[in-house]
Design goal:
With 617 residues, the protein is of the alpha/beta class. Helices cover 20% and strands 30% of the residues.
Length: 617
């Protein structure tokens, strides 16, 4: 059976009839599954005919010792079927690399931790692990194709490869891997809208699509010259942008974004809004970029999308809807009342948070792993979370400097139980000044993985201390490290370090020098607990005034990261995570704690007004 989509003379057809793709990207892994249907309904109301989604490998198979999971929140077949039942076609983008500001670009760290592996290439070490993933994934996707009566009309080969490498043999392998496993609908590549990106990422006999946020008319001219006969499809129109911690909150005017979409539609091109609805980087799933120093992405993935993180229909939604309806000659119809009516939220309130186990008591209680040089997260078998490093170090008389070579990403340092400061990948080799009296001192370094790189040549880098620790120019050897997997069930984590006498454990260290408790108490780091009483579950927005940096759980669900440097102030709490009556709130604070939490009735994602305009030059 012929694919549903075909093209000729720069015209796109579906089942032989003239067609234009008007799509919106929504990621099932960023939306609570109880809200999938609602977000799909809102996408339909915007006037699109297609839903686009990535598939995140590490969401389905975070551990090497477990088979990929396609149930519950990870039931991609259910998500795709819901879209089809709503009348939408579906575009699937299985990568395996997806970028998406998602941790490690979608890869499980265990799959690409072999230092001999050449990532995103035809290296058999790399293609071998991807084949195993595709062997599990594609039998789930293949039956959902249009040729079998399903909604899937197109599948992407890799993702923006022209921004990364030039191994065409790998791209051809990727295409063949899809075909050999039953993908028969239209295949396509996606790359930035210039000659440069096409040179690296496009294949001569496969539909090439574009990713860009402006100058679509210029990109269309490039396609007409470089890809004769192919219809222009902007498969990622960046109508908004994501935020990094410590940077401004990005917004883009609705009229500006809609005008750029109209340029593409006026040229008979197809378009997909990235994102139509962004959702949330729940837990520790947000990725990071790197530009001289790590740039971790915030928990919210609202991305100033037409459908906001909480589902609200924004000004941009209405502007895009008008453009989409006008391009097809349709008259605007009323939006269903239940979608256009503001949803109820939990009333604003404040509730107390009380101090629990101190941070150092918690991390010191983990069973240690011994080594001569510090071990990375990967060598410890840890994907996300924290590693506590400790060693006896000889300090010089007078002033000395603690340096870390190849620190990824952020380290809190104690000397003899006294807090010494913070090191990051930007200042780790400059180091921290300490005053020593000579002799041995207990050195402790707690390293946080702030999100694995998801884009660029540093993709695939490890986490933790990748080289070593120096006092002035001298290495410190013989380390203990305690890997802290913060994605374990919260009940298990809360038992660690609670009223434990580590002296009975022969593998536990003896921490000498100043007592840890006073320094830790002053820092205010550790667990905090509170109870939230509500009458009826609904969406809400959680703020932690007075707290510094850390993680928060709601009823045992790891909601995400917070950080006082912003721009994000409130964390979106979907209603399905709450229950009538008592709700447990747990905070793990890494820097300094507060005394209460707040619920707001509206999100606070930062100061608006920083407009992102994509530059093709």
């Amino acid at each position: 059976m012929a694919p549903a989509l075909s093209y000729e003379d720069r015209k796109l057809f579906k089942n032989g009839q003239p067609h234009r793709i008007i799509a919106g990207a929504i990621h099932y892994f960023r939306i609570h599954p109880d809200q999938w249907q609602d977000r799909i309904d809102r996408l339909v109301a915007m006037g699109v005919n297609t839903l686009d989604t990535y598939i995140a490998w590490n969401f389905h198979q975070p551990r090497a010792d477990a088979a990929p999971d396609f149930t519950g929140w990870k039931d991609i077949a259910r998500f795709v079927t819901l879209a089809g039942d709503a009348g939408l076609d579906v575009i699937v983008r299985p990568g395996p690399y997806i970028c998406a500001e998602w941790d490690n670009g979608g890869f499980p760290s265990w799959a690409i931790s072999n230092p001999d592996m050449v990532l995103r290439s035809s290296d058999p070490l790399f293609t071998g692990v991807v084949e195993e993933w595709f062997d599990a994934l594609l039998p789930v996707i293949a039956p959902l194709q249009a040729c079998h009566g399903g909604p899937v009309v197109a599948v992407q080969i890799e993702n923006e490869y022209g921004s990364y490498g030039d191994d065409k043999e790998y791209l051809r392998w990727n295409r063949k891997a899809l075909v050999d496993r039953g993908i028969t609908e239209t295949l396509f590549t996606a790359d930035g809208g210039t000659d440069y990106f096409l040179d690296g990422g496009a294949l001569p006999d496969t539909w090439a699509t574009a990713t860009l946020g402006s100058r679509g008319d210029e990109a269309d001219a490039i396609w007409e010259r470089r890809r004769p006969g192919e219809p222009f499809f902007n498969v990622e129109f960046w109508n908004g942008w994501f935020d990094h911690w410590g940077e401004p909150h990005h917004t883009r005017a609705a009229v500006d974004a809609a005008d750029e979409v109209k340029k593409i539609l006026d040229l008979d091109g197809s378009v997909c809004l990235y994102m139509a609805h962004g959702g949330t980087n729940f837990g520790l799933s947000s990725g990071a970029n790197h530009d001289g120093a790590i740039q971790p992405t915030i928990t919210s993935y609202d991305s100033d999308a037409p459908i906001a993180e909480d589902g609200r229909l924004t000004e941009k939604f209405h502007a895009m809807r008008e453009a989409f309806y006008a391009s097809s000659g349709r008259e605007l119809t009323p939006i269903p009342v239940h979608l256009n009516t503001p949803a109820g939220v939990v009333p604003a309130c404040t509730f107390t948070l009380t101090r629990g186990t101190a941070l150092l008591d918690f991390v010191r209680a983990i069973r240690p792993v011994h080594s001569i040089k510090p071990l990375s997260f990967e060598k410890l078998g840890l994907d996300r979370g924290l590693v506590h490093y400790s060693a006896k170090a000889v300090l010089p008389s007078g002033e000395g400097t603690i340096k870390v070579r190849e620190l990824h990403d952020r380290a809190y340092v104690w000397v003899d139980g006294a807090y010494a400061g913070v090191l990051t990948d930007a200042n780790c080799e400059t180091g921290l000044k300490v005053n020593g009296g000579g002799g041995l001192a207990q050195l402790e370094i707690l390293v946080e993985n702030q999100g694995r790189i998801n884009y660029g040549p540093r993709f695939g880098e490890g986490k933790g201390i990748l080289d070593g620790v120096l006092i002035n120019q001298r290495y410190v050897f013989h380390w203990e490290q305690r890997p802290i997997n913060l994605e374990k069930p919260l009940a298990e984590l809360l038992q660690v370090g609670v009223a434990e006498d580590c002296s009975d454990n022969p593998e536990s260290p003896t921490f000498t020098g100043a007592a840890a408790a006073p320094a830790d108490a002053e820092l205010g780091a550790g667990y905090f607990h509170g109870e939230l009483h509500i009458d009826e579950p609904a969406d809400t927005y959680l703020a932690l005034p007075g707290f510094g940096k850390g993680l928060v759980w709601i009823n045992g669900f790891l909601l995400g990261r917070f950080w006082e440097i912003g721009p994000q102030v409130t964390l979106y709490v979907p209603g399905p995570l709450l229950k009538a009556g008592v709700n447990k709130v747990t905070v793990l604070e890494l820097e300094h704690g507060g005394i209460h939490a707040e619920l707001h009735e509206n999100p606070i994602l930062g100061v608006e007004g920083v407009t992102y305009v994509e530059d093709l030059s």
